Amino acid sequence: MAWYDEAIFYHIYPLGLCGAPRENTYNGVTHRLQTLIPWIDHIRRIGCNAIYIGPLFESVGHGYETTDYKKLDSRLGDNDDLKRFVKACHKAGLHVIFDGVFNHTGRDFFAFRDIKEHREGSRYRDWYCNVNFSGNNEYNDGFSYDNWGGFNLLVKLNQRNPEVRDYICDVIRFWVQEFDVDGIRLDAADVLDFDFMKALRATANTVKPDFWLMGEVIHGDYTRWVNEGTLHSVTNYHLHKALFSGHNDHNYFEIAHTVKRLYEMGGNRPEGLKLYNFVDNHDVERIYTKLNNKAHFTPVHILLYTLPGIPSIYYGSEFAIEGRKEAWSDASLRPELHLSDYQDAEKNNPATRLIARLGAVRQQLPALSWGEYRELMLTNRQYAFSRKSGEDFCVVTVNNDDSDYVMTLSVEGGDSYEGLLSGERVSVVNGQICVNVKANSGDIWAPAGKVKKSRTRRHSEAEAAPADNAPKAAADTPTDTAQEEVLPKEAHAKEDDVKEASAEAPAAVAQEAPQVQMREAVPQPEDDRKAPDHAGLSYEDGIIRGLQEAILARMEKNGPVTDQMRRDVENNVYHDSLINWIKSF
């Protein structure tokens, strides 16, 4: 089990949230990132246990025209600010992933500047796609080149160039070594070269246990990207569209059909496609703006947190703020916010209470992260399904109609079931429960008294007040449940203890790993090749050496092996990481 399989993400667009100027004048450093430190407790209190933040690195404007991959944007601060932020997140039990903008760079990136200066004589002319010195552009460079989205501000990297590939892989290593990041969201993954993504995955397998790669993909067959060789997950734009239009059109068939299609795409297995689910982000309008009936905020988010996948909340949407796309600008989607303006939101804002409660429930019910999905009931305006993992079982009910609706549903085990949002209890009769689903609302039903709180070190256990209906909807639910601190101080591991545990982990893994698994993972030497000499090595070191040689052998079959690639393999002495690397071929 990896940390991201049970993640609940909080998505931050830092240039917006921190109120940075839209244009970078490169005129000194302003330490705005430190203003995000107080947000960490808020993120934990609403039940999130991971943060996706980006873009972060030096750029000209919106952040996606990178000019330096190894330097925090000076409008946000310096690298020490970013180190402190990630460290504070980790101390609070939050994993952190960065935006990786590797499809294109800005025009101020060193390689592009060299081309402008040395033209045909630049050693970096092949770092970009289709540089043509017979052409020109609106900047009057005297040459043309491929870009992203028709914007010459975003110069497309030649990902098939080994130097470019090695440079970006080195950036990933730098981010882990310098900032201790836990994963990367790949911008524009749907136009990245697949061999390039395989190289990124191979690097991800070596830099840190459970290092996560998630890609921005809009349309298509997600299995092209989500597999053992490329990415762990992609953005679920299919479900994003279905969630808001399915409510606006009173058409739960659209949502259920989308879920079924995606579930089948993952082999009808809960561990199949772990897609990154969201209802809004920095590129699309806020969910509260998109919904025709604001009361649908409640059933939309119940589905976000309970359908298969990894849920994410975009900063500010837990307060039900508005955000509408404007001509030629996404600024309204990326506003500056001050946490002081939302004090006690978990108590006083119905939308925030709902999000906090859903975060707590998801962490209390492993079935919502791991469970098999089964549709139980479906009409245009009502929808019910179950999630089951081992003995953990729950039923989810939602209703987008303006009237209450009674459902009779089959359940597994228990004498009575409890609505984890409403607090209501119903009896089990002949293996069924009969529940009244409130208008424009929903609930999560589980066997009464059997829900346990998650207390893993890396996961918060927020027990927020039960949610009302959405803002401006009638309040149907009790609000007297006390809030708890997400992670008590005594639950935090001391920093030195964490470092010791991390240092001891590789040896422990190697000792516990079954011999048969190792033998199966390491290919036997071919007849015309000399078997490797592992004499003088300990048993564990011999296993590691064998895995390294197996990886190099497979690399050689796929093409030239650079010195950097060889060093990457030789420097990786972690058994599980090497096993994963072999699986990625």
Radius of gyration, whole Å: 25 Å
| Class based on secondary structure composition and strand pairing | alpha/beta
Can you give the mean pLDDT? 85
The CATH class of one domain turns out to be Mainly Beta
Describe the structure concisely.
This protein is of the alpha/beta class and 585 residues long. Helices cover 33% and strands 17% of the residues.
Q: Would you mind describing this structure in some detail?
A:
The protein is an alpha/beta fold and 585 residues long. Among the domains are: 104-158, Alpha-Beta Complex (Oligo-1,6-glucosidase, domain 2); 368-458, Sandwich (Immunoglobulin-like); 495-583, no CATH class. Helices cover 33% and strands 17% of the residues. The protein has 18 helices and 21 strands.
Fill in the keyword field for this structure.
alpha/beta, Oligo-1,6-glucosidase, domain 2, Immunoglobulin-like, eight-stranded parallel beta sheet, 17% strand
